[in-house]
Amino acid sequence: MTKPVYVLNGPNLNRLGQREPHIYGHVTLAEVERICAEAAGDTGLVFRQTNSESEMIDWIHEAIEGSCALLINPAAFTFYSMAIMDALKMYPHPLIEFHISNVHKREAMYHNSLVSGVATAVMAGTGTRGYGHAVRLLLEMAAERAAA
Q: Which catalytic residues are annotated (predicted)?
């Protein structure tokens, strides 16, 4: 049996659809989960959101052995959490750092990611529809790695 794709979402993403819709749109996190599940297909999906840094770290540790790929939207953790960065350094499979908005077009405080340096790839600015693209890309990357 193939291991699932993990999709981990950080703080305040539980408020998608309500939080700053001019930046993040009107799609809810439940809708994002459906997009990801459809993209993951038979591979399966573990989809989670937390406002807790320690819970996020525990999920990353779980994903090390329990997943074939990881999509993480660390949200605010992106810019200050060395602990999450250190946990992600241990992740041995394809890893995409994902942001709904183009963080590089926003205020300077959003320009320096601690996660980007350990991610396989970074996606930003594609809106919530980008989650599905990212999951499909991760599946391709995982298949290529398995075939090598």
A: 24, 99
